[in-house]
Every structure is written in structure tokens, then in C-alpha cells.
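Final report, results section. Input specification for complex C-07:
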Amino acid sequence: MTEVIVVTSGKGGVGKTTSSASIAVGLARRGKRVAVIDFDVGLRNLDLIMGCERRVVYDFVNVIHGECTLKQALIKDKRFDTLYLLAASQTRDKDALTRDGVERVLEEMKSEGFDYVICDSPAGIEKGAFLAMYFADRAVVVVNPEVSSVRDSDRILGLLASKTRRAELGAAPVEQHLLLTRYNPARVVSGDMMSIEDVKEILGIEVVGVVPESEGVLAASNSGVPVILDDDANAGQAYEDAVARLLGEQRPMRFIDAPRKGLLSRLFGG
Amino acid sequence: MGIFDFLRARQTNTASIARERLRIIVAQERGQRGAPDYLPLLRRELLEVIRKYVNVDQDAIDVHVENDGTHDVLELSVALPGHSAKLGAGLRAEG
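Structure output:
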């Protein structure tokens, strides 16, 4: 059984690609066969975050147009041999992706025996984002504790409930998970940032992970190594927890409390 | 809390402002979710017609669709100025 998981958000810049890469690597590290697809046609970036940008020969649109086989286009990860990337095309043609084409590629991935297909959605609610979510069984909605991101996520939750194949067929709804990123516990304590509880209550779905704002994320993207592989980064460990929860494990949330202040900063304010 | 905190300007808790604003807008947008696309245009045209006769506010008209099982009910309510009573109308539409 292949499970299709879309990583989406509505708003741009909240961490969809970072999250897609880390979730895909996290699943592959546990021995799962994983394909991760970049749906952001025209703005390919997942290859950079995964560190295989120089090995892209064929892309998603080439496969859809029959210009190459799926096997030729899948880029095998150098770290995990059960992990494959399908890069986005850099074409400017907005209609390069079609629903039939996407369905064919996903069906072929299913017959190839992948356990998980991760669909990295582009920002917005246009065709690319629509197609990334349309065939999903589950959705990871990436959200920052910030007003525009939360509102856009709610819009995406509405679309997941109405504009997906599962919704149209009247099948079991797409399972929705919230992934809170760029979380800063110190700012939550000082009242500058909404808390996990606030976001959860507004959106009304369960939180699968909380990734703290971390210097490790930029360092990881700089070097093309998904942050989940950085054991020293809080963000990496938080992604590892999130992957475990996606697989049904119970794990307590970490990195959600503000660091204790020392005597000096307590006296003089921090 | 530092002992010198009183020297600094007191800051408002902006997270709670964000939370309240989101609660309202999310509830409102969820209410409109699944409603027919023509509702905003219908609302605007109705407003124009009513304004030919009565001077009402932009937000005096409330249009929404409700499902009561077998039917979709299009409900209009118009608040007229200077009257406490509302002029209400219910239209049955095909389900």
C-alpha cells in the first residue's frame, strides 16, 4: 500500500520544502521506500534542499509528457537507497502539469512499490497546489504561529475537505496534520507569539510536530543536507519526532518551553 | 520579570490580539465555505437595488445559504435605517 502525503500551507516561506525533505528522509531512514515530488513548477527548489541539484536530468513534466521514463527521472538519494526525488520542471508553462498526468505518475509509483509518496506543494491555491493535494491520503499542513499563515492554513484545510479526490468520491476524508514551524517558545512566554494551543484551537486539528526556530535550518539548506540529519539541531530532532508521530508513535513534544533565564538576565530583563 | 522592568514601556500582549482576530475571521470564512460563488455578486446587486429606494449601509444586507436537509435555503436579511425591525425574506432554491 502506497500512502500519498501532501505537504502544503497556502502561504509561502513557512517551511514546506524544508519539511518535505526532512519528512522524506525521516521515513527513508526507517527503511521505508519513499519518493518525494516537487510540484513547484517553474520554481524548483527541493533538489537544492536535498543536495542533488547537479544530478537533475529529467523532471516531473518530462515524465508526464512521455519524454522519459519515471525510472530515468527519479534521482536516487546518495545517503539512503530507498529514497528518490522527482524534481520540478523549470518551465514557465503553467499548464505543464495535468490531473491525468499526475495521476499516471502516482499510479506508476504505486506499482513500483513505494511505501510513501511525499508531494511538496507550491505556495498559493492555484493549479500546482491543487494537483499536489488532489490525490493525497494525508496532509501535513505547515503553519507558522503568525496571523497570515494561520488564516491561509484554514483555507487549505477547507480545500482538503472539498477539492480532493477523496472528497469528490465521498471516501474517507484526507487525514489532516498540523506541523508548526518557526516556533519560538521565549516569544510565546513574552506574549509576542501565539502558542501551540492557540493555533490548535483556531484551526481545530491535531498537531503532529512543533519545529522550533533554529539556526540549524539555514545551515542545513546551505549545505544541502535535510535538517533532520543534523542531530545537534533542535529542529532536526523535532522533525524526527514528527515523523515518528506520523507513523503512529506517541512522543511528547520537545523544545516547546522557553530556556530558563540566568540570574543576571532575570534581574535586568532579557 | 526583571526588577527594572518598570523602567521599560509596558508592552501589550500582541499574541492575544492575533488570536482574537483570527478566531473572528476564521469563523466568518468557514461560514462562507461551500457557499455558492455568486453570493458576493448577488449581495452587491441587491444592495444597489435596495439603495434605489432606501439609503442603507454597506453591511446592511446579510445573504447566506443554509441547508435544511432536502433544500438549500437562500436567506436575505436587510436592516433598514431608523427601524428596529428587520425586513426578512426567505427564498426556497432547488437543493
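Chain A has a mean pLDDT of 95. The radius of gyration of chain A is 19 Å. This concludes the modelling results for the funded period.
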